[in-house]
Amino acid sequence: MPKDTKKNSGFQSAAGLIRYFDSEDEKAPKVSPYLVLILAVVLVFVVEIAKVIWPY
Questions:
Q1: How far is CA 23 from CA 14, 19, 20, 26, 33, in A?
Q2: Model's pTM, two decimal places?
Q3: N or C: which end of the chain has fewer CB within 10 A?
């Protein structure tokens, strides 16, 4: 009998995560994936320029 509970424990522990990620908060800000990519490129550019201006 302990073998049966061990086999089913993985699904039960993952079920909570599936429910958590399926729910969306209506009050949460919505950010476009393109905006995230643009901000990442801008941040890399700023860091590279800062390394040229302030070398150590």
A1: 15, 6, 6, 10, 19
A2: 0.53
A3: C
